[in-house]
Design brief:
The protein is α/β, with parallel strands linked by helices. It has ten helices and ten strands. Strands 3, 4, 5, 6, 7, 8, 9 and 10 form an eight-stranded mixed β-sheet that branches. Strands 1-2 form a two-stranded antiparallel ribbon. Helix 5 crosses helix 10, helix 6 runs parallel beside helix 10 and helix 7 packs across helix 8.
């Protein structure tokens, strides 16, 4: 069992929280894009109201602990580890509720190079506990707009976690996949799950467009988000994302293992 104090120390040592590698300039650029409703930043979320840059900065200061000073325009961004811990607790509690109800769960990531192991361990554990881990639309092609133009990817699953990969790049079922922010993969997966009387997930777990795209369609969603991902925190503030956990989403994959242990201990052994 990993204590809260030990996890806090790990968050800071691994730079998952505290000063993180995400540059302040990158975060502020994302807030500008979101305020302009640029799909590169909204990630499939259609905000209920207009959010200007100052409001977004204030929200991110509240939810993540970044500096709320608009004059702070450069250097590393900062995530408050206490906010990360509180959100991880809420994330684990929601996952635990899904286990208690034997819910159908869909896992998906736009960060397979970093976060696949985190989600895969959760998928393995909830499946063993009686949840149905859904894998709809396996092998479906999805056209996604990138900075290089529209590219076609295949929707694949690795250990129950959806990801996108370039056609023919590697054998199906292998890893890693492609980095993407797009909500199109989750829309394709949900459409396939709903077709022919299929089973829709009661919970979607992931990041980027997987969380925002699901939340926008009314499916409960929880996930991880960096300081340059304001869409998940707006979705949380507006009630379409249940939990957004602030942390650096691009550190070494093994640095997320203590988070996995902490989340599963709380989700599967709530009396501890």
């Amino acid at each position: 069992m990993l204590s809260t104090g030990a996890l806090r120390a790990h968050l800071l040592a691994a730079k998952l929280a505290g000063p993180v590698a995400t540059p302040r300039e990158t975060s502020l650029r994302s807030y500008r894009l979101f305020a302009a409703r640029d799909p590169r930043a909204t990630l499939g979320l259609a905000p209920e109201r207009h959010w200007d840059e100052r409001e977004l900065l204030a929200l991110m200061a509240d939810r993540c602990g970044v500096s709320g000073d608009p004059r702070h325009v450069s250097g590393p961004d900062v995530i408050d580890p206490e906010r990360t811990l509180a959100a991880l607790n809420a994330f684990a509690d929601r996952l635990g509720e899904a286990v208690a109800r034997r819910s159908a769960v869909l896992f998906g990531t736009g960060h397979p190079h970093r976060l696949l192991g985190f989600y895969a361990a959760l998928a393995d554990a909830v499946s063993a506990a009686g949840c149905v881990v859904l894998t709809p639309a396996q092998g479906h092609r999805v056209d996604i707009t990138t900075r290089f133009g529209v590219r076609t990817y295949d929707l694949d699953y690795v250990r129950g976690v959806a990801l996108m990969r370039e056609p023919g790049a590697r054998a199906a079922g292998s890893e890693p996949g492609a980095h993407t922010h797009s909500p199109l993969p989750v829309r394709v997966a949900l459409a396939a799950a709903a077709g022919d009387g299929g089973q829709l997930p009661e919970l979607v777990v992931g990041d980027h467009g997987w969380v925002c795209g699901a939340g926008q369609l009314g499916i409960e969603a929880i996930g991880l988000a960096d300081t340059d991902d304001p869409a998940l925190f707006v979705g949380e503030a507006e009630g379409r994302v249940s939990v957004a956990v602030p942390l650096d989403d691009a550190v070494r994959p093994d640095h997320y293992r203590p988070l996995t242990r902490y989340v599963l201990n709380r989700a599967l052994c709530p009396s501890r």
